[in-house]
């Protein structure tokens, strides 16, 4: 069996592109935005054509929040959606991360938290993470520049952003709630820990808050990776990452494909097909099937199995050389290797690298922590409720990565509606929503004011 797999290495190792799944994320797409958010496609006209109320701005951000003698600044991109605003007090912030933001998570009304924004009358912001998309503190990715790409700087970015938006938009007694999925979900939870005075609560979907350098829980094959060479190791990494990726995004509601076609159930049917006795052939059939499901996606019949070819794709700090996929992959790799871990290995046991990174959230309050039971990352979540601190984990049976964040759909896992209701109820409690004070949903006064502003904006542009 091992020899048969290794023989596949030669015909497949003919492409130097990055693998389709890279350190737990879909290459060329962010974990949060999946197919909606290609790297650097951040201001495409279709987003603003589809959602004319969406606004995009640059914000003057600090380069180094922890060196008072460093006064350098840079432009950080954010999106603003005032469509639902009716009380100048409730604000929802979607945290970006792992890739660029194109505004859809601030504008697409089917997204769960935007449905709640409509009900509660919230202003909506979506902040792009430093060193991704158009938000470059320094216009390169050399290691001397990447010293400023840390979770602590990103959290401080959020704090300074909130303080600045309060001043710019005149929010009175603001009730901010942060949202995020995957790594941005971790940021959402950690932000409540470090800057509790700036928000009233957070939702941290599929957030791996218990950091591990050596995340052996994701990949556990029955062989010792230490005995393999780099290229062979990389080859198996591509195989395992593909299985992981298919599992990670199953039933997540991002598209018709993941609703009912590109699912764990279909994957298992192919891998257990008794009419094909050759297990290696079943793997090949699985990859060919995936290609048919995603004709515009990465070609899984051609994998970049050369270790050094892959490293070369992220080894430069030059953005022109890196291009879209390489820039996002290099930034994500830097965060993983430099600080947060998440290195998926084949080690089945705890060892010296299995201890948690000392970045804690355990004294935070008002945090909802939903995870999907099918999500490989849920092993790094937390499941201990703390009523005193209002830490509220929720394991959603039969769902995958960030499944609670997407629009509902017919035939979705039966556990999702209850999970969304749980999250929504606690968001309501965090903001202390009062219809008599905050205004009822879709109030006539708000609708009239929004129509007038929209009309004025159209006339101004003509």
TrEMBL record:
The keyword Signal applies. Residues 1-16 form the signal peptide. GO terms for molecular function: dipeptidyl-peptidase activity; serine-type exopeptidase activity. InterPro entries: AB_hydrolase_fold, Peptidase_S28. Keywords: Glycoprotein, Hydrolase, Protease, Signal. Belongs to the peptidase S28 family. This is Serine carboxypeptidase S28. It comes from Caenorhabditis nigoni.
């Amino acid at each position: 069996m091992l020899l048969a797999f290794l023989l596949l290495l030669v015909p497949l190792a003919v492409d130097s592109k990055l693998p389709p799944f890279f350190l737990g994320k879909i290459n060329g797409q962010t974990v949060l935005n999946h197919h909606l958010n290609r790297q650097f496609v951040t201001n495409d006209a279709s987003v603003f054509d589809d959602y004319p109320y969406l606004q995009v701005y640059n914000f003057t951000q600090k380069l180094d929040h922890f060196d008072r003698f460093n006064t350098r600044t840079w432009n950080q991109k954010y999106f603003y959606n005032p469509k639902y605003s009716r009380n100048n007090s409730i604000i929802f912030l979607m945290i970006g991360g792992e890739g660029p933001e194109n505004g859809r998570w601030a504008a697409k009304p089917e997204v769960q938290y935007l449905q709640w924004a409509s009900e509660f009358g919230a202003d909506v912001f979506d902040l792009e993470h430093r060193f991704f998309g158009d938000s470059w503190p320094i216009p390169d990715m050399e290691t001397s520049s990447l010293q400023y790409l840390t979770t602590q700087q990103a959290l401080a970015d959020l704090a300074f952003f909130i303080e600045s938006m309060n001043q710019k938009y005149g929010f009175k007694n603001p009730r901010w709630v942060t949202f995020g999925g995957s790594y941005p979900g971790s940021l959402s939870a950690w932000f409540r820990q470090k800057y509790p005075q700036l928000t009233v609560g957070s939702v941290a979907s599929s957030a791996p808050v218990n950091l591990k350098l050596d995340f052996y829980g994701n990949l556990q094959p029955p062989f010792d990776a230490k005995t393999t060479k780099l290229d062979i190791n990389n080859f198996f990494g591509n195989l395992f990452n593909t299985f992981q990726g298919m599992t990670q995004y199953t039933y997540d509601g991002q598209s018709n494909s993941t609703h009912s076609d590109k699912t764990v159930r279909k994957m298992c049917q192919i891998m257990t097909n008794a009419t094909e006795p050759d297990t290696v052939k079943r793997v090949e059939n699985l990859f060919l099937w995936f290609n048919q499901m995603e004709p515009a996606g990465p070609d899984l019949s051609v994998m970049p199995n050369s270790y050094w070819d892959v490293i070369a794709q992220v080894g430069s700090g030059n953005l022109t050389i890196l291009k879209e996929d390489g820039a996002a992959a290099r930034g994500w790799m830097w965060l993983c290797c430099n600080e947060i871990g998440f290195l998926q290995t084949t080690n089945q046991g705890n060892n010296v690298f299995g201890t948690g990174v000392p970045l804690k959230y355990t004294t935070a309050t008002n945090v909802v922590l939903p995870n999907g039971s099918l999500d490989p990352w849920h092993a790094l979540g937390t499941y201990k409720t703390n009523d005193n601190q209002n830490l509220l984990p929720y394991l959603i049976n039969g769902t995958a990565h960030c499944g609670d964040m997407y629009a509902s759909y017919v035939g979705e896992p039966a556990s999702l509606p209850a999970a969304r209701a749980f999250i929504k109820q606690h968001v309501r409690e965090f903001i202390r929503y009062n219809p008599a004070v905050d205004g009822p949903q879709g109030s006539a006064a708000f609708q009239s004011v929004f129509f007038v502003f929209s009309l004025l904006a159209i006339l101004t542009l003509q």
